[in-house]
TrEMBL record:
Residues 1-29 have a biased composition (Low complexity). Its cofactor is Mg(2+); Mn(2+). GO terms for molecular function: coenzyme A diphosphatase activity; metal ion binding. This is ADP-ribose pyrophosphatase YjhB, NUDIX family. InterPro entries: CoAse, NUDIX_hydrolase-like_dom_sf, NUDIX_hydrolase_dom. Residues 81-225 form the Nudix hydrolase domain. CDD domains: NUDIX_CoAse_Nudt7.
Length: 260
């Protein structure tokens, strides 16, 4: 058994931190009053899969058709939970297709020291949580945490809302293509300890996959990449993306990694 430093966003599955379902919008080609590919502000939200690289086609197709029950049996509580959003940002780096992740500061109250997608709670200025608010929030938080220029991000889908019982967050995953990459790094060390990119090939490689053994008894998918143990909510989403895109390779589910 390999002992590794924990990094994730709560266990994904039937225990706290689960990937869950909700009433979010998925699909493409939606416009409204807000911000999409043009940066965080008051422009129109545009969600479009037009012009994506061919390797992202299976992801866009999966995002457009995924049903809540395919993600989890949990629903966000009626009228409860703190609305938030994350940005699942795909890029094309020196090592091929990649995902952007952050390591959260150990000083934070929720999910301290864990690896996750950029994101955070919706602010009032982000707008309607049932409308364009999650897209604005995901782009704004990504800019605040990593310094990326949101005008270079093409949002091509929004997954159903997910729930993290351990922290009470109702999370909308916003899926984007980094059409015009810009330099990224830690903006505020009090919030973010590290910003890093992980090749998709590393998430697909069976050698980097394991089952996280949580002290609560929960077992869930995990990835050992770039010196981090990615588990919980974040790993659950990545696991589903790899599955639904048809990229999954056989891996050893009996390989257990305890949360240190």
């Amino acid at each position: 058994m390999t002992h590794a430093r924990g990094a994730g966003t709560g266990p994904a599955g039937a225990e706290p931190g689960a990937v869950s379902s909700g009433n979010g919008t998925n699909g493409t080609n939606r416009t409204g009053g807000g911000v999409g590919t043009g940066g965080v502000g008051t422009g129109a939200v545009e969600i479009s899969a037009a012009g994506l690289p061919s390797w992202l086609t299976p992801v866009a197709d999966a995002v457009a058709r995924v049903r809540p029950e395919q993600l989890s049996r949990f629903l966000p509580p009626d009228g409860g939970g703190r609305q938030s959003a994350v940005l699942i940002l795909f890029g094309d780096g020196d090592r091929g297709p990649e995902l952007l992740l952050i390591e959260r500061s150990r000083a934070l109250r929720s999910h301290a020291g864990q690896s996750s997608f950029p994101g955070g709670a919706l602010d009032p200025e982000d707008g309607d949580p049932d409308g364009d608010g999650p897209v604005r929030a995901a782009l704004r938080e990504a800019e605040e945490e990593t310094g990326l220029d949101p005008s270079g991000v093409q949002v091509f889908g929004v997954l159903p809302r997910l729930y993290i019982p351990v922290s009470g967050f109702v999370v909308t995953p916003v899926v984007g293509w980094w059409r015009r990459p810009t330099p990224v790094g830690v903006v505020d060390p009090a919030e973010t300890a590290r910003v890093f990119r992980v090749p998709l090939a590393d998430f697909i490689d069976p050698a980097n996959r394991a089952t996280l053994a949580h002290p609560s008894g929960f077992l869930g998918p995990a990835f050992l990449v770039e010196g981090a143990l990615v588990w919980g909510f974040t790993a659950g989403l990545i696991d589903k993306i790899v599955q639904f895109a048809g990229w999954e390779q056989p891996w050893d589910h009996d390989r257990k990694v305890p949360l240190a």
